[in-house]
Structures are given as C-alpha cells and as structure tokens.
Amino acid sequence: MDAYETINDILVNLFYEILELEEKAIITDEFRDISNNDMHIIEAIGLGDDSTMSAVARKLKITAGSLTTSMNSLVKKGYAERRRCDQDRRVVYISLTDKGRKAYFHHERFHRQMTNAAIANLNEGELPLLAKTLNGLAVFFRNYEEDQERMAD
C-alpha cells in the first residue's frame, strides 16, 4: 500500500473508531441517562454561567429549536439549568449543574487522553507539523459543503 492509500485508510477508519469509542468511553454507567449528543451539548455549554441558548446553538451549528429539545431533557435529568435575563426576557442563559460539570470533566478527560495518544510518539519539533496537518483537514471539513455547492453551480 502506498502512502496515499495508507493515509486514506487511516483517516476513514479513524473517524468511525473515534465515534464508536467516544460513545463507549463517555457514556458510562454513571452517565447512562444521556447520549453522546447530550455530552457534546454539555461540552458546548462549558463551565461559565453566561452561555446563551442562541450562542450554544450557533456553536453546535444546530437550530435553537433542536437545542431547546435537548436542553429540556438535560434540565429534567439534572445536568443543566436555564434562567431568563432580567433585562431582556427573550435571552435565556444556560449553565451546568454540579452533575453537568462532572459529566463535562468526564468528557474532557477522554479528549485529553485522545490528544495525548496522538502526540505521544512525537518530539517537540514534530508537533507543529501535526498541528498544520490536522488544521488542513479541519479546513477541508469546514469548507466541504460550501465547496460542493459552488461546484454544482
């Protein structure tokens, strides 16, 4: 197998493996009442108290309605809470409860382990090349849909 085929094989399999393993690693007995999607919403809310529904929906690239449905579930299960802004009742702030913070740190630990595994065999001089390579891949993903639409025109 040449280098191109090897890299293609690694990328294709890596995405499937990450999705599968992340779900197994994150949704443990302690957090069995939430989904992997819920965990990513918890991550997007973050540890601050000033996240708004609209900001988190933009961050996740979902509609406010979709986020509302997920937030209803997270609030009911005790992972998150919401409160309206006193000055503008249309603005809804969301934050994590203690239970939500615990889930956040659990998810963060998995990501730290994954990142450490990616850099474990690299020396300091190789880290910028890995970062440049992964950034190029991220740019490809961010622009893919837009590029496809341009090509269709």
UniProtKB/TrEMBL annotation:
Which InterPro entries would you find in this protein's record? HTH_MarR-typ (IPR000835), WH-like_DNA-bd_sf (IPR036388), WH_DNA-bd_sf (IPR036390)
Please verify whether the record's keywords include Transcription regulation: yes
- Keywords, alphabetical: DNA-binding, Transcription, Transcription regulation
Q: Which residues form the HTH marR-type domain?
A: 11-139
Q: Which Gene3D superfamilies match?
A: Winged helix-like DNA-binding domain superfamily/Winged helix DNA-binding domain
Could you confirm whether the keyword Transcription appears in this record?
yes
Query: What top-level branch of life does the organism fall under?
Result: Bacteria
Question: Which N-terminal residues, if any, form the signal peptide?
Answer: none
Q: Which GO terms describe its molecular function?
A: DNA binding; DNA-binding transcription factor activity
- Name of the protein this chain belongs to: MarR family transcriptional regulator
What species does this protein belong to?
Schaedlerella arabinosiphila
